[in-house]
Amino acid sequence: MGRKWNNIKEKKAQKDKNTSRIYARFGKEIYVAAKSGEPDPESNQALRLTLEKAKTYSVPRHIIDKAIEKAKGGGEENYDHLRYEGFGPSGSMIIVDALTNNVNRTASDLRAAFGKNGGNMGVSGSVTYMFDHTATFAFEGDDPDAVLESLMEQDVDVRDIVDQDGLIVVYAEPDQFAQVQEALKQYGVTDFEVAEFEMLPQNEVTLSADDQAQFEKLIDAIEELEDVQNVFHNVELTD
Questions:
Q1: Backbone angles phi, psi at 192, to 5 degrees
Q2: Strand order in the sheet with 194-201
Q3: Do the domains 133-199 and 80-129+202-233 match in fold?
Q4: Which parts of the sequence belong to the TACO1/YebC-like second and third domain (predicted)?
Q5: 133-199 belongs to which CATH class?
């Protein structure tokens, strides 16, 4: 469970830095979700899930409203969801999810970020087979057994539940996201530290100090790109 927990810690740390960039990414993601169907979370599951995720990052209401109003107004911007795969120092693996209105720009920027920071792009499927697509929830608590019992009573299946440093972390099948989240709310969870889809590595790797420094530089360069929405990797970062 080490890598999974590190992943949660990374998500929590992201909330405390680069908030303007995070908000900009959510504005784009909310707009795309709202435009994909009715701009109403009650009837648009994609929008509802995106808003739930935005809530965990404390995205301001005016950013959410602006994105939805833009979709209601028939915004002409069209975005493509793209996934890129690559390698960092010592064969470390990286998955990059992007939302872009210019595929050539995104590919070029990513190729440059990898190439200038000790990495290289891979072909489709070269990395993802080593990761599991997972619905992940984390919230304050200290009794995972009680959570599991509640989920079982509601006839909800999950992959795993762990307790770590004051948080309970629940892993579930991606197609069970809405069902699990609703069941957790019925249990009494009102605030989620994490409520989103993850690509979790089946195996983690530990890098040397020099390689980790290079790896972190690579990840920072990727995350700075305007089209990048999420970055997943299989490195257990050490302090």
A1: -105, 130
A2: 160-164, 167-172, 131-140, 194-201
A3: yes
A4: 79-235
A5: alpha beta
